[in-house]
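User: Okay, second chain of the day. Same drill as before: sequence in, structure tokens out.
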Amino acid sequence: MKDWLSTDLVQQAKRGNQEAYTELTRRHSKHVFAVCMGILGDAHDAEDLTQEVFITAYREMNKLRKEEQFQQWLDKIAKNRCIDWLRRKSKMKQIIDEKKYIAADRPVEFENLNEALGQIDEMYRLPLSLFYFEGQDCQKVGKTLGVETATVRTRISRARKLLRDILSKQEGQNG
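Assistant: Same drill. Structure tokens below.
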């Protein structure tokens, strides 16, 4: 199969030939890894996202219109995955940083934050998690949960207040 042109491999993979897709993965994985590494700067994260890129590409092969643009298509998927990952990481860092100085200017450990999240009613926890950890905007959270965008904003605000209260109490017990 190694003598096949990439366009032939793409055509075969689009028809469900897993061997062809495996060969495409082999041929393009170093390049996709390099794209991810260039954006993320971390080899472990780049490896994880490289795998995600190929899983996404496999699932969405039917969306590729021009077989000769397979590598450019992979690049686009890789860039989007990396950007999404950075946004999620940034949102998670933001919520953790936001909580670090709530009580007595002491950092909040991730375990404390996780425990506090577990104490919040699902009605508030779920929108907060979708917003911060999944990187969804309020409108998308609303669609996911079947509620109005304004309701999502209110619930996220309420969840933040509940988190502040719980973390302050935790800090009081540990201080």
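The chain is about 75% helix and 0% strand.

User: Thanks, on to the next one.
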